[in-house]
Design a protein that fits this description.
The chain has 15 helices and two strands. By secondary structure, the chain is an all-alpha fold.
Length: 295
């Protein structure tokens, strides 16, 4: 199958599940529910659901069991984007080619919409019957996602990112920030599928190493696109990181070094999953997409 074949199926599943679990705009409070749906259903790459499904396919997990985790992780990702875009954070006006949630509605509604998306993600993992898993598995999935988003995960990474503006970080400091800000939720995407496989896999450590390398490459590629991408293509304001003096790989080490390091990380990620043989092809295609993407 081509990557287009995979993504057509994966994205269709993810969109359908998100549509099903989000409250409708006819339910009260209508404005809040409208903002929640606006924040989630307004497009996006859906890389995290892709990783859930690709890992599940590589481990022979039925995709219907992965719809809940894929949707939950995307809901949590959307929550983080709404908060990150706020004037008190990154102060962005554009996201996915549309006005950010606080611009389309107002700041208070945006904050409440994001706040509602977070518990909805946990609710999906706790109750979705199609996951066909026991309570122990549900608890593992909830623990994984909660840990990925806390002060030692995505939220902590955003804090480090804000604190690093205008500063010169070391390689280790920058990679630590990347692993928290971006890498932990990507890690949760892969490991959610591992948990749903519900059995011990010799490939467990290889998959952890794969997504660690790929998570760093993902953020470096984002940094590159902020500089050389076009606003109409990447869906957000080009050059925003430079304007805010963000600590990024290109800013600290140069564009050529950034491209080289992303390519090296891709090679490392692909080497890790050689143990999967042909079944690892979906993960290989996602990895290439992440590093080669133009948006």
């Amino acid at each position: 199958m081509t990557f287009e074949d995979y993504t057509r199926d994966w994205l269709g599943r993810a969109e359908a599940k998100l549509e099903a679990v989000l409250p409708t705009v006819d339910e009260s409070p209508k404005r809040l529910h409208e903002a929640m749906r606006y924040s989630v259903m307004g497009g996006g790459k859906r890389v995290r659901p892709m990783l859930v499904y690709a890992t599940g396919m590589s481990l022979d997990v039925p995709l219907v069991r992965l719809d809940g985790p894929a949707a939950a992780i995307e809901l949590m990702h959307a929550f983080s984007l709404v908060h990150d875009d706020l004037p008190s954070m990154d102060d962005d006006d554009l996201r996915r080619g549309h006005p950010t949630t606080h611009k389309a509605f107002d700041e208070a509604t945006a904050i409440l919409a994001a706040d509602a998306l977070q518990p909805l993600a946990i609710h999906v993992l706790a109750t979705d019957e199609e996951m066909q898993c026991n309570l122990e598995t549900r608890l593992k999935l909830i623990e994984l996602l909660a840990s990925a988003c806390g002060s030692c995960g995505m939220t902590g990474g955003q804090s480090l990112d804000l604190g690093a503006e205008g500063k010169q970080l070391s390689t280790g400091e920058l990679e630590h920030m990347y692993r928290l800000k971006t890498g932990r939720l990507l890690h949760a995407s892969v490991m959610s599928a591992v948990i749903c496989a519900d059995r011990n896999h010799p490939e467990y450590q290889a998959l952890e190493n794969y997504i660690d390398h790929l998570g760093l490459a993902f953020q470096i590629r984002d940094d590159i696109l902020d500089i050389e991408g076009e606003t109409e293509t990447i869906g957000k304001q080009q050059g925003a990181d430079i304007e805010k003096s963000k600590a990024t790989w290109p800013a600290l080490f140069g564009m050529e070094a950034a491209r080289k390091h992303a390519a090296e990380l891709l090679d490392k990620a692909l080497t890790e999953i050689e143990i999967l043989g042909p079944s690892g092809e979906p993960l290989r295609q996602v990895a290439h997409y992440i590093v080669d993407r133009t948006l």
